[in-house]
Amino acid sequence: MLGLTVRWSLADAPEGVEEQLAAYVAETSHARFTGMAGLRFKTWRQVPGEWFEGCYVFATSEAREDFQRTFTQDAPDAPGSRIIGSPPILIEACDIVAVAEGWDGFEASPRC
């Protein structure tokens, strides 16, 4: 599977940025990526005070390459960059080796 990781540092981000990011994901970003052509799924992760990241899995290499190219060009103005106050520190294509769904199933939710 074809992955892409986009990571921002939160080391110098304003206080309370984690909650602002979670609200942005719940109110805007989740809906933007739900049903997106070429995307299998996206997860958002953060470690407070350290980093915030989007992890994408694409259906085709063309979908990943198109998204990565466009995102990289616009990264300084991306919503995450504006909220955090700096561009991503990492935009990296990767291979997803496997995905397992546990007994309790997968939950697609804007906020857990």
From TrEMBL:
Cross-referenced Gene3D superfamilies: 3.30.70.100
Protein name: Antibiotic biosynthesis monooxygenase
Organism per entry: Nocardioides pini
